[in-house]
Amino acid sequence: MQSLGNESELAVKKDQQYLWHNITPYSEKNPPMIAAAASGSWVTDIGGNKFLDGMSGLWCVNVGYGRKELAEAAYHQLLSLPYFPLTQSHMPAIALAEKLNAWLEGDYVIFFSNSGSEANEAAFKIARQYQQQIGQHYRHKFIARYRGYHGSSLGALSATGQAQRKYKYEPLSGGFLHVAPPDSYRRPAGMSVEEFNLQSAQAIEDTMIWEGVETVAAVIMEPVITGGGVIVPHQVYLDRVQEICRKHGVLLIIDEVICGFGRSGRKFGHQNYGVKPDIITMAKGLTSAYLPLSATAVRKDIYDAFKDNSDEYGYFRHVNTFGGNPAACALALRNLEILEQENLVERAGILGKRLTAEWAGLLDHKLVGDIRSFGLIIGIELVADKATKQPAELAVVKGIIAECKAKGLIIGKNGDTVAGFNNVLTIAPPLSSTDEDIQFIAGTLKAVLNGSW
Ligand code: PLP
């Protein structure tokens, strides 16, 4: 690894003086990596060191770095129409909404915002107001899962089920309830995965009944819990959740912020399960994170309930100044074209399978309790004891990540420190990763785990 030159040292000093980082403790000894450039799956820091970004930033650079055509799409749009509010309309937003509807294979209307958190906030407000519009005045509660993450703003954080992210900021918004996720790896001994998943789904219906079904507006979940440790449900779980929601008049909101845009091996994560959500939220891969943009897709008949002009305030009274910025929409459209033209959705599935096949032998490693995958989202659960499944020490998890980084590979770690789980290594490289990139990821992690650990 190259040592930092004078210029780099100055940048680190200024960073430490002026910049407040996302969810990372300040550390004089461990300064942040300062990225300078990136291409494909590789990022170069200001010292000239190259790293394979095995997390696509924050699970978001789906088409990889350095796509000139995305910059050009934004540039041309900025020259012709840089901004116009979506209280009215513009062509890039119309074209993107039409395209998203085709990708969703349904009949959806699109509300644009800038981030995943905002897309979820819009979904919560739409769900509550919709229930009022149809005369269900008591339906205001949301049911989410522990270990799920839905964003950093107070409503989205309320839906989040990770204590570590919440407990310093409580009390949060009222009306958000949580149930345990279908963590099949930790199911009771003797119970089948199917049985356990059905039981986990039943917890949602039980909660509705205990709360009074007429008070519940919606259920929110990711198709697969990603940031909470890659928890992949069995088909029966989502089938049953959908059935429960329909039976009780509760909307099903699916958060596709990470799973969307090919990451799961299908265009959207829920399409792997064949469920039809009422509301779908998305961000990250929508623009491959080149510009901020998010969307809340709402079933057409829900939208129709907002058209009744007999109530003066019956329309959706929510505004987002920057949401659906024309340049971000033009860029997103080009991004979707790249995903289609290069078959990156299918490629994500192929690469995910290749990585899990490469790592199958790691299940014999004393630290590896479970390997789970969903397209090109892979979680490797590290344990201190395979019999008890006691999570590996945080220092071990951090040590492995640091050793990968020293060998030029960035991977992630997810879970919930406060709840005693922060033991899942996560790997989610760009969908455009080359065969050589995948070999590098597979080989580096194997070498690290089979080395000193
Ligand atoms: N939903 C999920 C599943 C996420 O993973 C995230 C962010 O990581 C969000 C919502 C919030 O997105 P943002 O950080 O863009 O607000």
Report on the structure:
- This protein is α/β, with parallel strands linked by helices.
- The protein has helices at residues 6-18, 56-59, 68-80, 91-104, 116-133, 154-159, 163-166, 193-211, 235-248, 300-304, 326-341, 344-359, 394-406, 435-450; strands at 35-39, 42-45, 50-53, 108-113, 141-145, 176-179, 216-221, 251-255, 279-282, 294-299, 368-374, 377-385, 390-391, 409-410, 412-416, 421-427.
- It folds into two domains: 33-63 and 343-450, Aspartate Aminotransferase, domain 1 (Alpha-Beta Complex), CATH 3.90.1150.10; 68-341, Type I PLP-dependent aspartate aminotransferase-like (Major domain) (Aspartate Aminotransferase, domain 2), CATH 3.40.640.
- Helices cover 38% and strands 18% of the residues.
- The chain has a seven-stranded mixed sheet, with helices on both faces. Strands 11, 12, 13, 15 and 16 form a five-stranded antiparallel sheet that branches. A four-stranded mixed sheet has the order 1-2-3-14.
- Helix 8 runs parallel beside helix 9.
- It is globular.
- The relative contact order is 0.15.
- The model has no long low-confidence stretch (mean pLDDT 96).
- Bound molecules: pyridoxal-5'-phosphate.
- The site of pyridoxal-5'-phosphate (PLP) has 16 residues, from helix 5.
List its salient traits.
16 strands; 38% helix; binds pyridoxal-5'-phosphate; Aspartate Aminotransferase, domain 2; alpha/beta; transferase; Aspartate Aminotransferase, domain 1; 453 residues; Aminotrans_3_PPA_site
